[in-house]
Design a protein that fits this description.
With 194 residues, this protein is mainly α. The chain is built from nine helices and no strands. Keywords: Membrane, Transmembrane, Transmembrane helix.
């Protein structure tokens, strides 16, 4: 067990080091991906939804952008974790809210804690998922009124937009490869070399 923990720590240090190297090209692509991903969601919000309240653009998407555009090699950034983590957490948050609607001191920590355990169990750990669960519980009245529709819009639709942008911009240079070690990435690399 200790050997496994030490290996995990070594790998984590390497990933963090590699992701924080000063390479202006990498920073440029991180910026472009995050800007376009959040920009598309914000544009849909502003064009098609009431301007009074943001229901399509949730805070956890900002943290997701840090991972999928800035730390693309992290296991937490991979598509399985991105989609699964957000959807599981959204489902947990809405379910907890429906079961215990007016007990925030219990619903908020319960939603986050159960989300973490379910993401760990399903191997879909995505740290912004905890915020997605929390938003379902403590969000504005419009967010809470969405009920299980919250899973589809804003969560799933927003995550799909961010993933598509990540697949495009994280594979535009030879130094960036997303998702890590996937068939998609290998076939994309072969096509661009020919």
């Amino acid at each position: 067990m200790k050997k496994r923990i030490n290996r995990t720590i070594r790998i984590s240090k390497y990933v963090i080091y590699k992701e924080t190297l000063v390479d202006f090209k990498e920073h440029f692509w991180s910026f472009v991906g995050a800007f376009i991903g959040i920009g598309l969601i914000a544009m849909i919000q502003s064009l098609y939804l009431p301007k009074v309240e943001n229901t399509f653009l949730i805070g956890s998407f900002g943290a997701t952008c840090v991972l999928i555009y800035g730390a693309i090699q992290s296991p937490f950034s991979q598509p399985r974790n991105l989609i699964g983590g957000h959807l599981i957490s959204a489902f947990v948050g809405v379910t907890i809210l429906k079961l215990l609607p007016d007990i925030i001191w219990l619903t908020a920590p319960l939603a986050v804690a159960i989300s973490i355990v379910l993401m760990q169990f399903t191997k879909t750990l995505h740290p912004p998922g905890g915020a997605t669960a929390l938003i379902a519980v403590i969000g504005t009245e419009k967010i809470r009124d969405l009920g299980y529709y919250y899973l589809f819009a804003p969560v799933l639709s927003g995550v799909i937009i961010l993933l598509i942008v990540a697949l495009i911009f994280n594979n535009m240079t030879s130094k960036r490869s997303y998702p890590t070690n996937s068939k998609y990435t290998r076939s994309f690399r072969k096509k661009t070399k020919n």
